[in-house]
Amino acid sequence: MAHPRWLSVCLPLVALASISATTLSCGAGTAVRPGASTVVGPAEAGPRACKPGDLADCTAQCGKHHAGSCVHLGLMYEGGRGVARDEVRAAGLYKEACDTGEAHGCSDLGFMYEIGRAVGKDEARAVALYRQACNGGEAHGCGNLGFMYETGNGVEKDEARAVALYKQACDGGEAHACGNLGFLYETGQGIGKDDARAAALYGQACDGGEAHGCGNLGFLYETGNGVEKDGARAVALYKQACEGGDAHGCGNLGFMYEAGNGVGKDDARAAALYKQACDGGHASGCTSLSRLRLAETPR
Questions:
Q1: CATH class of the 8-229 domain in this structure
Q2: For 161, phi and psi rounded to 5 degrees?
Protein backbone atom coordinates (compact mmCIF):
# COMPACT_ATOMS: atom_id res chain seq x y z
CA MET A 1 0.00 0.00 0.00
CA ALA A 2 1.36 3.38 -0.97
CA HIS A 3 2.43 5.64 1.83
CA PRO A 4 0.06 8.59 2.36
CA ARG A 5 1.97 11.80 1.68
CA TRP A 6 0.92 15.25 2.82
CA LEU A 7 2.49 18.62 2.19
CA SER A 8 2.86 21.82 4.13
CA VAL A 9 1.70 23.85 1.15
CA CYS A 10 -1.75 23.18 2.52
CA LEU A 11 -0.95 25.30 5.55
CA PRO A 12 -2.47 28.58 4.44
CA LEU A 13 -5.65 27.34 2.72
CA VAL A 14 -7.76 29.08 5.34
CA ALA A 15 -6.89 32.62 6.23
CA LEU A 16 -4.49 33.35 9.02
CA ALA A 17 -5.25 35.56 11.97
CA SER A 18 -2.53 37.10 14.06
CA ILE A 19 -0.51 37.17 17.25
CA SER A 20 -0.69 33.82 19.10
CA ALA A 21 -0.14 30.59 17.17
CA THR A 22 -2.30 27.49 17.40
CA THR A 23 -2.55 24.73 14.82
CA LEU A 24 -3.72 24.33 11.26
CA SER A 25 -4.61 21.48 8.95
CA CYS A 26 -5.04 20.78 5.27
CA GLY A 27 -8.38 20.58 3.60
CA ALA A 28 -11.38 22.76 3.10
CA GLY A 29 -13.26 23.51 6.27
CA THR A 30 -10.74 21.89 8.59
CA ALA A 31 -8.00 24.45 9.00
CA VAL A 32 -7.46 26.70 12.00
CA ARG A 33 -5.09 29.60 11.67
CA PRO A 34 -3.17 31.26 14.52
CA GLY A 35 -5.67 33.35 16.44
CA ALA A 36 -5.25 36.97 17.38
CA SER A 37 -5.86 38.18 20.88
CA THR A 38 -9.59 38.36 21.51
CA VAL A 39 -9.35 40.76 24.44
CA VAL A 40 -11.37 43.85 23.62
CA GLY A 41 -11.20 46.62 26.15
CA PRO A 42 -13.37 49.69 26.50
CA ALA A 43 -13.49 52.09 23.61
CA GLU A 44 -10.30 54.04 23.19
CA ALA A 45 -8.83 56.43 20.69
CA GLY A 46 -5.79 54.31 19.87
CA PRO A 47 -5.76 51.13 17.77
CA ARG A 48 -6.32 47.76 19.42
CA ALA A 49 -6.89 44.15 18.41
CA CYS A 50 -10.35 43.76 16.97
CA LYS A 51 -12.86 41.11 17.94
CA PRO A 52 -12.34 38.25 15.42
CA GLY A 53 -15.32 37.93 13.10
CA ASP A 54 -16.65 41.39 13.89
CA LEU A 55 -16.56 43.16 10.53
CA ALA A 56 -17.27 46.63 11.89
CA ASP A 57 -14.73 46.37 14.69
CA CYS A 58 -12.00 44.89 12.48
CA THR A 59 -12.64 47.51 9.79
CA ALA A 60 -12.41 50.28 12.35
CA GLN A 61 -9.24 48.99 14.01
CA CYS A 62 -7.55 48.24 10.70
CA GLY A 63 -8.44 51.79 9.69
CA LYS A 64 -6.46 52.88 12.75
CA HIS A 65 -3.53 50.84 11.38
CA HIS A 66 -3.68 47.95 13.84
CA ALA A 67 -1.85 45.33 11.75
CA GLY A 68 -3.33 42.28 13.47
CA SER A 69 -6.83 43.63 12.89
CA CYS A 70 -6.01 44.07 9.20
CA VAL A 71 -5.08 40.40 9.05
CA HIS A 72 -8.37 39.47 10.74
CA LEU A 73 -10.19 41.63 8.22
CA GLY A 74 -8.28 40.00 5.38
CA LEU A 75 -9.33 36.65 6.79
CA MET A 76 -12.97 37.64 6.50
CA TYR A 77 -12.64 38.93 2.93
CA GLU A 78 -10.60 35.92 1.80
CA GLY A 79 -13.11 33.42 3.17
CA GLY A 80 -16.28 35.45 2.60
CA ARG A 81 -17.09 35.37 6.30
CA GLY A 82 -19.65 38.02 7.14
CA VAL A 83 -18.81 39.96 4.00
CA ALA A 84 -18.78 39.34 0.24
CA ARG A 85 -15.71 37.34 -0.68
CA ASP A 86 -12.99 39.56 -2.12
CA GLU A 87 -9.55 37.96 -2.41
CA VAL A 88 -8.03 41.07 -4.00
CA ARG A 89 -9.09 43.06 -0.94
CA ALA A 90 -7.71 40.31 1.30
CA ALA A 91 -4.34 40.43 -0.44
CA GLY A 92 -4.20 44.19 0.02
CA LEU A 93 -4.96 43.85 3.72
CA TYR A 94 -2.31 41.17 4.17
CA LYS A 95 0.20 43.43 2.40
CA GLU A 96 -0.73 46.35 4.61
CA ALA A 97 -0.21 44.19 7.70
CA CYS A 98 3.05 42.73 6.39
CA ASP A 99 4.43 46.16 5.51
CA THR A 100 3.88 47.27 9.10
CA GLY A 101 5.68 44.27 10.57
CA GLU A 102 2.85 41.75 11.12
CA ALA A 103 4.48 38.41 10.26
CA HIS A 104 1.17 36.57 9.81
CA GLY A 105 0.20 38.97 7.05
CA CYS A 106 3.47 38.20 5.27
CA SER A 107 2.79 34.47 5.48
CA ASP A 108 -0.74 34.74 4.11
CA LEU A 109 0.35 37.06 1.32
CA GLY A 110 3.14 34.62 0.50
CA PHE A 111 0.64 31.83 0.01
CA MET A 112 -1.40 33.98 -2.36
CA TYR A 113 1.70 34.58 -4.44
CA GLU A 114 2.62 30.90 -4.29
CA ILE A 115 -0.65 29.75 -5.83
CA GLY A 116 -1.52 32.88 -7.81
CA ARG A 117 -4.64 33.74 -5.83
CA ALA A 118 -5.73 37.37 -6.45
CA VAL A 119 -2.13 38.22 -7.41
CA GLY A 120 0.12 36.95 -10.18
CA LYS A 121 1.74 33.63 -9.30
CA ASP A 122 5.29 34.36 -8.18
CA GLU A 123 7.02 31.62 -6.19
CA ALA A 124 10.18 33.68 -5.67
CA ARG A 125 8.05 36.42 -4.11
CA ALA A 126 6.31 33.80 -1.98
CA VAL A 127 9.70 32.58 -0.73
CA ALA A 128 10.70 36.12 0.23
CA LEU A 129 7.46 36.65 2.12
CA TYR A 130 7.66 33.30 3.91
CA ARG A 131 11.23 34.17 4.91
CA GLN A 132 10.05 37.54 6.23
CA ALA A 133 7.31 35.80 8.21
CA CYS A 134 9.70 33.19 9.57
CA ASN A 135 12.26 35.82 10.57
CA GLY A 136 9.40 37.56 12.38
CA GLY A 137 8.81 34.48 14.51
CA GLU A 138 5.78 33.11 12.63
CA ALA A 139 6.00 29.31 12.70
CA HIS A 140 3.68 28.75 9.72
CA GLY A 141 5.93 30.92 7.57
CA CYS A 142 8.92 28.79 8.56
CA GLY A 143 7.01 25.63 7.66
CA ASN A 144 5.90 26.98 4.29
CA LEU A 145 9.43 28.17 3.56
CA GLY A 146 10.64 24.68 4.41
CA PHE A 147 8.22 23.26 1.86
CA MET A 148 9.59 25.59 -0.81
CA TYR A 149 13.13 24.39 -0.07
CA GLU A 150 12.00 20.75 -0.01
CA THR A 151 10.34 21.01 -3.42
CA GLY A 152 12.61 23.59 -5.04
CA ASN A 153 9.71 25.97 -5.77
CA GLY A 154 10.93 29.55 -6.08
CA VAL A 155 14.29 28.66 -4.58
CA GLU A 156 17.06 26.15 -5.18
CA LYS A 157 16.07 22.78 -3.73
CA ASP A 158 17.77 22.15 -0.40
CA GLU A 159 16.36 19.30 1.71
CA ALA A 160 18.77 19.94 4.58
CA ARG A 161 17.51 23.51 4.76
CA ALA A 162 13.95 22.20 4.66
CA VAL A 163 14.74 19.97 7.63
CA ALA A 164 16.03 22.93 9.64
CA LEU A 165 12.99 25.05 8.80
CA TYR A 166 10.52 22.28 9.57
CA LYS A 167 12.25 21.78 12.91
CA GLN A 168 12.02 25.48 13.68
CA ALA A 169 8.33 25.48 12.80
CA CYS A 170 7.65 22.27 14.72
CA ASP A 171 9.42 23.64 17.78
CA GLY A 172 7.18 26.69 17.41
CA GLY A 173 4.05 24.57 17.70
CA GLU A 174 3.25 24.03 14.01
CA ALA A 175 1.82 20.51 13.77
CA HIS A 176 2.06 20.31 9.98
CA ALA A 177 5.77 20.99 10.11
CA CYS A 178 6.23 18.20 12.66
CA GLY A 179 4.57 15.81 10.24
CA ASN A 180 6.60 17.01 7.27
CA LEU A 181 9.78 16.68 9.31
CA GLY A 182 8.69 13.17 10.24
CA PHE A 183 8.32 12.30 6.57
CA LEU A 184 11.87 13.46 5.85
CA TYR A 185 13.15 11.32 8.72
CA GLU A 186 11.15 8.36 7.44
CA THR A 187 12.46 8.70 3.89
CA GLY A 188 15.96 9.89 4.79
CA GLN A 189 15.70 13.10 2.77
CA GLY A 190 18.03 15.82 3.97
CA ILE A 191 18.77 13.87 7.14
CA GLY A 192 19.60 10.33 8.23
CA LYS A 193 16.69 7.91 7.98
CA ASP A 194 15.16 7.29 11.42
CA ASP A 195 11.76 5.59 11.58
CA ALA A 196 11.52 5.91 15.36
CA ARG A 197 12.05 9.67 15.13
CA ALA A 198 9.52 9.82 12.30
CA ALA A 199 6.97 8.02 14.47
CA ALA A 200 7.53 10.47 17.33
CA LEU A 201 7.06 13.43 15.01
CA TYR A 202 3.93 11.96 13.42
CA GLY A 203 2.60 11.46 16.93
CA GLN A 204 3.33 15.08 17.74
CA ALA A 205 1.52 16.17 14.57
CA CYS A 206 -1.44 13.91 15.34
CA ASP A 207 -1.67 15.17 18.92
CA GLY A 208 -1.66 18.70 17.48
CA GLY A 209 -4.81 17.96 15.50
CA GLU A 210 -3.16 17.18 12.17
CA ALA A 211 -5.14 14.35 10.58
CA HIS A 212 -2.45 13.43 8.06
CA GLY A 213 0.03 12.92 10.89
CA CYS A 214 -2.39 10.41 12.42
CA GLY A 215 -2.61 8.57 9.11
CA ASN A 216 1.15 8.47 8.63
CA LEU A 217 1.63 7.19 12.16
CA GLY A 218 -1.02 4.56 11.47
CA PHE A 219 1.01 3.39 8.49
CA LEU A 220 4.07 2.89 10.70
CA TYR A 221 2.00 0.84 13.16
CA GLU A 222 0.59 -1.19 10.27
CA THR A 223 4.06 -1.98 8.92
CA GLY A 224 5.98 -2.05 12.20
CA ASN A 225 8.50 0.58 11.09
CA GLY A 226 9.87 2.59 14.00
CA VAL A 227 7.24 1.18 16.36
CA GLU A 228 6.03 -2.25 17.37
CA LYS A 229 3.63 -3.58 14.74
CA ASP A 230 0.04 -3.17 15.92
CA GLY A 231 -2.85 -3.56 13.50
CA ALA A 232 -5.47 -2.44 16.00
CA ARG A 233 -3.53 0.74 16.74
CA ALA A 234 -3.17 1.35 13.01
CA VAL A 235 -6.92 0.99 12.59
CA ALA A 236 -7.58 3.54 15.36
CA LEU A 237 -5.16 6.04 13.84
CA TYR A 238 -6.52 5.59 10.31
CA LYS A 239 -10.02 6.15 11.71
CA GLN A 240 -8.87 9.33 13.42
CA ALA A 241 -7.24 10.50 10.18
CA CYS A 242 -10.30 9.66 8.09
CA GLU A 243 -12.66 11.44 10.48
CA GLY A 244 -10.32 14.44 10.32
CA GLY A 245 -10.75 14.69 6.55
CA ASP A 246 -7.68 12.76 5.36
CA ALA A 247 -8.72 10.76 2.28
CA HIS A 248 -5.56 8.64 2.50
CA GLY A 249 -6.55 7.59 5.99
CA CYS A 250 -9.98 6.51 4.73
CA GLY A 251 -8.39 4.43 1.99
CA ASN A 252 -5.92 2.79 4.33
CA LEU A 253 -8.68 2.07 6.83
CA GLY A 254 -10.66 0.47 4.02
CA PHE A 255 -7.71 -1.80 3.30
CA MET A 256 -7.59 -2.88 6.95
CA TYR A 257 -11.29 -3.83 6.82
CA GLU A 258 -10.84 -5.66 3.54
CA ALA A 259 -7.86 -7.59 4.86
CA GLY A 260 -9.25 -8.11 8.37
CA ASN A 261 -6.08 -6.62 9.80
CA GLY A 262 -6.59 -5.19 13.30
CA VAL A 263 -10.35 -5.31 12.81
CA GLY A 264 -12.98 -7.83 11.71
CA LYS A 265 -13.04 -8.39 7.95
CA ASP A 266 -15.89 -6.38 6.41
CA ASP A 267 -15.93 -5.86 2.64
CA ALA A 268 -19.00 -3.63 2.78
CA ARG A 269 -17.29 -1.30 5.23
CA ALA A 270 -14.13 -1.42 3.12
CA ALA A 271 -16.10 -0.42 0.03
CA ALA A 272 -17.70 2.52 1.85
CA LEU A 273 -14.29 3.73 3.00
CA TYR A 274 -12.75 3.33 -0.44
CA LYS A 275 -15.60 5.41 -1.85
CA GLN A 276 -15.01 8.06 0.80
CA ALA A 277 -11.32 8.12 -0.10
CA CYS A 278 -12.15 8.29 -3.81
CA ASP A 279 -14.63 11.13 -3.28
CA GLY A 280 -11.90 12.92 -1.34
CA GLY A 281 -9.54 12.81 -4.30
CA HIS A 282 -7.45 9.77 -3.34
CA ALA A 283 -6.91 7.90 -6.62
CA SER A 284 -5.90 4.64 -4.94
CA GLY A 285 -9.25 4.63 -3.15
CA CYS A 286 -11.02 4.72 -6.53
CA THR A 287 -8.84 1.87 -7.81
CA SER A 288 -9.44 -0.22 -4.71
CA LEU A 289 -13.18 0.36 -4.87
CA SER A 290 -13.31 -0.75 -8.52
CA ARG A 291 -11.20 -3.81 -7.73
CA LEU A 292 -13.41 -4.79 -4.81
CA ARG A 293 -16.60 -4.37 -6.82
CA LEU A 294 -15.16 -6.41 -9.67
CA ALA A 295 -14.22 -9.22 -7.28
CA GLU A 296 -17.80 -9.29 -5.96
CA THR A 297 -19.39 -9.39 -9.42
CA PRO A 298 -20.86 -12.86 -10.20
CA ARG A 299 -19.19 -14.57 -13.13
A1: mainly alpha
A2: -70, -40
